[in-house]
Amino acid sequence: MPTSPPPSRSAAELNELIRALWSHPAVPLTAEQREEYGRLCAELRRVERGDVVEAA
Asked: Which residue from 13, 14, 7 is spatially nearest to 42, judged by alpha carbons?
């Protein structure tokens, strides 16, 4: 039986996760948190673009 990809998160959920990374605006992110921030932002861009296919 083929497996389906996991459902993608909504833009609202991704925004909430991004905001949750910072405990306070004056506190810098750790290296691990910056990596997670990058992954979340990339996922958010994909969700916002939808099924847009770039031209060759």
From this structure: 14
Report the Cα–Cα distance between both ends of the chain, in Å, rounded. 34
Enumerate the H helices of the chain as residue ranges: 11-20, 31-49
Q: pTM of the entire structure? A: 0.71
Instruction: Please say if the pLDDT value at position 23 is more than 80.
Output: no
Triad 9, 32, 49: Cα angle to 5°:
30
Closest CA to 21 of 9, 35, 37, 38: 37
* Cα–Cα distance for residue pair 56/11, rounded to 1 Å: 27
